Amino acid sequence: MSKFTYRFNQATLTFEKVEKKITKVLIKKILPQFTLSLILGILLFFVASSFISSPAEQNLVERNNELKLKFELLNKDLDRTAFDLNELEKRDDNVFRMIFEADPVSEDQRRAGFGGSDRYAKLRYFENSNLLINISTKSDILTKRMLVQSESYKEVMLMVNNREAMAACIPAIQPIALDELTRFGSAFGRRFHPIYHVWKMHTGIDLTAPTGTPVHAAGDGVIFRTGRAGGYGLQVRMNHGYGYVTLYAHLSKILVRPGQKVKRGDIIGLVGSTGASTAPHLHYEVRVNGKFVNPLNFYYNDMTDEEYQQMLESSSTADTHVFE
């Protein structure tokens, strides 16, 4: 490149040689263009970075949106689960526990343990923190409620098992089979005693049957006393649990021993006429929590409605002066 340039001098009307200065050229021509280009480049970079994402950034955005969608679906699932659990809690309180006469689980028990300090403080610094805190709160509450409900079901199952055991122990059958029963003797209640000749409470019922007729346990239980007992003669006493005790008196023979466990229907002795008795029969008593009750009230396990009604009529017209 030439180091000189020519400039027309109007005064002399001639061209004059002028030496080029590279510095001046750079400052006057190249530097402004470079500066402008640099500024435009920076502006384009910021615009591009603001509106145009890189493939990696786009991938992160897509993953973030996908995670947010999954969290929103999880939130809805938690709502549905809470609704279903609420229905189970209602059924537990208003059906299962009511059947067994148990108190419902209180609302405080079901939803206790979520107050106090901010347990979700760490989640406040995440994107979509409100959604994360909402999901975490629902999840914790559901976990506690399900634990309480699980414990309630355990209690209900225990009550079911106890009710089954109790049903087996209640003296619900007649100690002498209907086809072996001759007739009813004395009924439950006050009557004139045929031997002592005084008005006295008859604390059981008398069932007439021939000597040697099998006497059956009226329910599951444990024998706790056998042998002679004054006017009862040979007698067996059985503890059924749950406050129930039965007595079988005037036996001719005892077939069980104290401490022996028996099932409903097992033969525990034979009909006789020992003690204060005028003829072979079984004197049978039921006590509930220490109080005498009419044994006829329990004969529902092995009788039809017609047989039970016939038994009541026979008992009401029984000759109350035949036996002790």
What brief labels describe this structure?
324 residues, alpha+beta, two-stranded antiparallel sheet, 5 helices, 23% strand, disordered C terminus
Average of per-residue pLDDT values: 78
Low-pLDDT sequence parts = 315-324
By oligomeric state, this entry counts as: single chain
Main CATH class of the largest domain: Mainly Beta
Distance between the termini: 151 Å
Profile the largest sheet. 10 strands, antiparallel
- How many strands? 14
Q: Looking at this structure, what is the CATH superfamily of the largest domain? A: Glucose Permease (Domain IIA)
Helix content: 40-55%
C-alpha-based Rg, rounded? 50 Å
Whole-number total of structural domains? 3
SSE arrangement, N to C: EEHHHHEEEEEEEEEEEEH
Q: What is the overall number of helices?
A: 5
CATH topology of the largest domain: Glucose Permease (Domain IIA)
Q: What structural class is derived from the secondary structure elements? A: alpha+beta
The CATH architecture assignment of the largest domain turns out to be Distorted Sandwich
Question: What is the percentage of strand-forming residues?
Answer: 15-25%
What general form does the structure show?
rod-shaped
Strand-helix topology:
Layout: E1 4-9, E2 14-19, H1 22-51, H2 55-99, H3 107-111, H4 129-169, E3 183-184, E4 189-192, E5 199-202, E6 205-208, E7 214-216, E8 221-228, E9 234-241, E10 244-254, E11 261-262, E12 267-271, E13 281-288, E14 291-293, H5 305-316
Antiparallel strand pairs: 1-2, 3-6, 4-5, 6-13, 7-12, 8-9, 8-11, 9-10, 10-12, 10-13, 13-14
